[in-house]
Amino acid sequence: MMSQINPRNAMQQYAQAGAQVADIEPYRSVQMLLQGAMDRIAIAKGHMQRNEIRQKGEFIGKAISIIDGLQAGLDRESGGAIAGNLDGLYEYMQRRLLKANLENNQTILDEIFGLLANIKEAWDAIPDAAKRLPA
Length: 135
Description:
Elements: H1 7-16, H2 26-49, H3 53-72, H4 76-103, H5 106-124, H6 128-131
């Protein structure tokens, strides 16, 4: 069972990273957050390739903020081991993105993009019926 997400907290982080959001269903909000982080990493990679340092740092910072929102939204009480594992993974991603920024390392950006894509794929595969189950 996936951990519960505090959509308001997570979406505030997403909005602060530069997206327009409204009250939406929690599963959809997580999908948007994951996609938003992936999009910002892809944009940061383009800036990195063009040696646009300020913009690269800005978009890596936005990706970190979104991941922070995902991490803050974890329900550690009812989420059990899954929430704990995601918490550690989100922390790892944030550290790696900081390193990518400092070192202009596109390989790290690709790594974190791939991790987010894997999480999003699993999230997208949750059956609609499971999304309606009470917490």
